[in-house]
Structure formats: C-alpha cells, structure tokens
Write a structure and sequence with these properties.
10 helices; binds NADP nicotinamide-adenine-dinucleotide phosphate; 2 domains; five-stranded mixed sheet; elongated; Cytidine Deaminase, domain 2; alpha/beta; Dihydrofolate Reductase, subunit A
Length: 360
C-alpha cells in the first residue's frame, strides 16, 4: 500500500528526531526519498560540518544503486538551503536537489534565515521541480524551537528544568535535593542536556551540590557543556566538579544580580555562541527567569511524594503573589511516566517561521 504524503513527512520528522544530540547552531532536519509510494532512503542532519538531511538521503539512495530521481519525490522537514558563505561548511542543498531533477519536493516549513527564506523553493521551481509546502507545518517547527528563536530574536533559547516533589519542593528544608527523582529520570535529564549547548545554575546550587553539569550517558565519554553560573560561588577553584568536567574556559560567572537577563540572553547568543541554555536551578534563579517571562520551555520531573515543611526551596518563594489570578500560566504539551516519576514538558511560547502560527 502506498504511503500518504502526511505519512512520508512524518517519517522525515522521525528521522530528524533520531539524532539525540544537539545540531545547533544548525536546525534538526529529516528527509526521505519516496519512489512508487514507498520510502526508498532517508537522511538526517547531525550538526555543523556534517551532510544536510537531503544530501544524506540522496547519498543513501545512490549507495543502494538508485540513480534516476525523475520519478521520485523528496520530503524534507525544512526548506533546502541555497546559500554559500564563508562560515558554511557544507554545500547548499537546493542546487543538488535541482540537479537530480526530482518529480516533486514536499517541504514542511520555510527556513527563517533571510539568506534562504523562500529562495530555496524558488531555485527548485526554477529548475522545473514541483514544490509543495506546509505539510505538517504545525508540528515540524516544534523540534527546532531553539533554532527558530535564535534566527528570529538573536537570543539564546531557554529551557527551565526542575526536579520537584509532588508538592513542588525543589529541596528539603536542609537544602538537600539528592535525590528527588529516580536514576532513570536523571538519565532522561542527561538526554535533555545532550540536546542543549549550555547549562546555567545559581551559585547556591554550586555550593550545595557541587554538580558536574556535563552530559553523562552510560558508555559514552562524558560530553562537556558551556556553563553559566549566576553569582560568584564561595571557594571557586579548579577543584569544583563543574570546572573539572567542562574546563575552566567553558565556565562563565555572571556576578551582577541587577544584570538585565533579557539583554544577557542576547549577549550569550551573539558573543558566546550559546544557542540553547538549560537552566537547572535552584529555585531562586529558576524563579527569576520564570517571573521575567524569559523561559521558552519547561521540563519538570516530579518524584518522591509529598514533603510538607516550610517550603524553603519552592519556586517563586521570593516573588510569587500567592494569588490564583496572578499565576504564571503553563499548559503541558507532553506528560510521561518514568517508573514512579512523572515528567511534564510544555512550551511557554511557540516560534514558527510562518508568522500566522507564532505565539501561544
Ligand atoms: N530540584 C532541583 O531541580 C534543584 C536544582 C538545582 C538546585 N536545587 C537545590 O536548590 C538549592 C539552591 O537553590 P537556591 O534557590 O538557594 O539558589 P540558586 O538559585 O542556586 O542560586 C541563587 C543565588 O544566585 C545568585 N544570583 C546571581 N545572579 C542572580 C540572578 N540574576 N537571579 C537569581 N540569583 C542570582 C544569588 O547569589 P547572592 O545571594 O550571593 O547574590 C542568589 O542567591 C540547593 O539546595 C540545591 O540542592 C534543586
């Protein structure tokens, strides 16, 4: 039975998601080549310096001996690029696709990069290829929220990750947070770290927990991340795990509580190449970003049960209004069970290259 166009684009999206590490500053993209209603080959992008999804899919098809693309269709989650510049390490895809003379190219959403935006499509059309756009256009941008914000606002994308008891405590009244969730949830959080390029914490968290803040996934070598510490930790030295694990040059200390955080996100993106910042607490720092409306996405791991007590380490202790009508609204997009823990994920904002679909 032939696959429908929606099913083919869905497969391209699955392929884009197959790569579990960050591709930033590049977007996640997946592509499939369909011939006679069946998927012949697929590809996905794995970050700067590696082939783009379309080129990868074509390479796979050619390795299988497929040479004539005239009756084949290409499904790609984002508009093929068409520009060359000094910083770009891989050749543009639109001319490659044009040279293969595909019967039709299906594109889910446009590339917001002004060097591409619509021009990739024009190049394909000029080459006589039929182009259809918008298929799954509500869904595919969700995998590229960081890239889309980077392009649109020239600022780092912010994901706030928290572990909480079911009554919202991020540590007990003695400041102990090891461990609110199970080791399976903590491994899941390492996969979250794998998808970002930087991690931020407040100085109290460094002092209380001495965390490494790198990516540690079973048999893989630990992967360092760029680190931003808010406030100057006491006893800041090379002995701290965060420095040992990520390297001193990768650790930035911001010791100015009055710093405009919105402007800082711009600086982190334009001057430090931080595309996606994962805030890992504690409650004081997390609350500040949330209160100032600077969080794009939230991931909460709930575990342990109910702690009661003084709520010394609950989110927003220093700014929460305690009035229902003033609550910062949050609607989950996804809920998962990991053993006895619950993971809730949701977007605070939506970035979409098609302006009509942006916002929340
Ligand atoms: N459950 C979780 O997900 C989780 C995650 C991380 C940590 N924790 C726990 O949370 C506790 C620490 O949390 P915490 O709320 O006390 O501290 P925190 O958020 O880790 O650090 C807050 C401190 O950072 C400094 N800072 C500098 N710039 C800031 C800014 N712009 N906004 C906010 N803070 C800024 C301030 O230090 P100064 O006061 O010196 O100015 C402030 O007191 C620990 O017990 C840790 O175990 C839990």
């Amino acid at each position: 039975m032939s696959l429908t166009p929606d099913e083919c684009m869905s497969r391209a999206l699955d392929l884009a998601l197959d790569y579990p590490f960050t591709t930033l500053p590049n977007p996640r993209v997946g592509a499939v080549i369909v011939y006679d209603g069946r998927i012949l080959a697929g590809g996905y992008h794995r970050g700067p310096g590696t082939p783009h999804a379309e080129a990868h899919a074509i390479e796979v098809a050619e390795k299988m001996g497929f040479k004539d693309f005239k009756n084949a269709e290409l499904f790609v989650t984002m508009e093929p690029c068409c520009h060359k510049n000094a910083a770009k390490r891989t050749p543009p895809c639109a001319p490659l696709i044009a040279s293969k003379k595909f019967k039709r190219v299906w594109i889910s959403h446009l590339d917001p990069n002004p060097l591409v935006n619509g021009k990739g499509i024009q190049q394909l059309k000029k080459a006589g290829i039929s182009v259809k756009t918008g298929l799954l256009g509500e869904v595919t941008p969700l995998i590229n929220q960081a890239f889309l914000k980077n392009q649109k606002e020239k600022k780092s994308y912010v994901t706030l990750k928290m572990a909480m008891t079911f009554d919202g405590k991020m540590a007990d009244d003695y400041g102990k947070s090891k461990w609110i969730t199970t080791s399976a949830s903590r491994m899941d959080a390492h996969w979250l770290r794998a998808k970002v390029d930087a991690i931020a914490v407040g100085r109290n968290t460094i002092e209380a927990d001495n965390p490494s803040l790198n990516v540690r996934i079973s048999k893989l070598h630990p992967i360092p991340r760029k680190i931003v510490i808010f406030g100057q930790p006491r006893n800041f030295s090379n002995k701290l795990k965060v420095i040992k694990a990520n390297g001193k040059n990768q650790v930035l200390v911001i010791d100015d509580k009055k710093r405009d955080l919105d402007k800082l996100l711009k600086e982190l993106y334009t001057q430090r190449d931080i595309c996606h910042l994962l805030i890992e607490g504690g409650p004081h720092l997390s609350g500040r970003f949330l209160d100032e409306g600077l969080v794009d996405e939230i991931v909460v791991y709930y575990g342990k049960g109910f702690l009661g007590g003084q709520a010394t380490y609950s989110l927003g202790k220093d700014w929460g209004s305690m009035r229902l009508e003033k609550a910062i609204r949050f609607t989950p997009d996804d809920v998962r069970l990991i053993g006895p823990d619950v993971v809730v994920q949701g977007f605070m904002k939506h970035y979409n290259p098609d302006k009509k679909r942006s916002g929340r």
